[in-house]
Specification:
The complex is a heterodimer of chains A (82) and B (235). With 82 residues, chain A is mostly helical. Chain A is built from four helices and no strands. With 235 residues, chain B is mainly α. A two-stranded antiparallel sheet of chain B has the order 1-2.
């Protein structure tokens, strides 16, 4: 597999898009991954599942606006250069 | 007129240099980076020997000097970024030479090889960071530490390719097996003392199990990537 730096950027953009489209109410709650279902108290270390849910929620919150910009740039570049 | 222009030009240059420095300091903490390049010849020689034959080394702890880790000049166990950087560049040049021997060389191939290896290293560091975050390991391992430990595999790759070029395909597989096992032993011992010792008392056993799986996974990934990045060079 011969990678270029550009394919890495493309793959990263697609992965972040995939995380961003996971809808909170319609999907994550139905499989038990909603962020208000996982807080297990203030005791010991949070488990892997709650860390993962926190990560998904923070990625969605933080990357919403930059993703719009980066996706628009990618669309324009792909239209121009194929 | 010329002196005024020169003075103006030099003031512009110094202003530009300050701006670049400021921007660079925002992204990369240069002092932390300098720690990883504070090496000397004896350290490099001993570290290379350790990478090839780690089985007799007894003490794997990183030594501290009042809560500050000692630089690599004074501590053999400290990770550095000099060896991985030089090994990466040597690997790219060696790949070009190996492809030239097989008459498959062109200048684009060199850039492709370099960016492929770089992309795999980025993927590995990101996977390790994700694993460390999910397992809530509170340790000293920063991104540069993980970059250093991921970069040590290039030494094994160079040795495998050299042996393959000198002794043919059998030599390549023998060198691959030897360097893979040495590297796996090295990674497991180093990461166990670096990642687990500050937190080995606390946490339920499931956390420690996850950390163990993480270390073993990182170690098992090394031979695969060494084979993947070098087998097309030794036909």
């Amino acid at each position: 597999m011969a990678f270029t730096l550009y394919s890495l950027l493309q793959a990263a953009l697609l992965c972040v898009n995939a995380i961003a489209v996971l809808h909170e109410e319609r999907f994550l709650k139905n499989i038990g991954w909603g962020t208000d279902q996982g807080i297990g108290g203030f005791g010991e270390e949070p488990g892997i599942k709650s860390q993962l849910m926190n990560l998904i929620r923070s990625v969605r919150t933080v990357m919403r606006v930059p993703l719009i910009i980066v996706n628009s740039v990618a669309i324009v570049l792909l239209l121009l250069f194929g | 007129m010329a002196t005024a222009a020169m003075a103006y030009g030099s003031s512009i240059a110094s202003h530009g240099k300050d701006m670049v420095n400021k921007e660079l300091h925002r992204f990369v903490s240069v002092n932390k980076l300098k720690y990883f390049f504070a090496v000397d010849t004896a350290y490099v020689a001993k570290k290379l020997g350790l990478l090839v034959f780690p089985y007799t080394h007894q003490n794997w702890e990183v030594q501290y000097n009042r809560d500050v880790p000692l630089p690599p000049r004074q501590d053999l166990n400290a990770p550095d970024l000099y060896i991985p950087t030089m090994a990466f560049i040597t690997y790219v040049l060696l790949a070009g030479m190996a492809l030239g021997i097989q008459k498959r060389f062109s200048p684009e191939v060199l850039g492709l090889c370099a960016s492929t290896a770089l992309v795999w290293m980025v993927i590995e560091v990101l996977a390790l960071l994700l694993g460390l975050y999910l397992a809530t390991v509170r340790s000293e391992l920063s991104t540069f530490h993980l970059l250093a430990y991921s970069g040590y595999k290039y030494v094994g790759m160079i040795l495998s390719v050299l042996t393959g070029l000198l002794f043919g395909s059998d030599g390549y597989y023998v060198a691959l097996a030897w360097t893979s096992s040495a590297l796996m032993y090295f990674i497991v011992r180093s990461l166990r003392t670096a990642a687990l010792s500050p937190d080995s008392m606390g946490g339920p056993s499931s956390q420690q199990r996850v950390q163990l799986y993480l270390t073993l996974g990182a170690a098992a990934f090394q031979p695969l990537i060494i084979y993947w990045l070098t087998f097309h060079l030794v036909r």
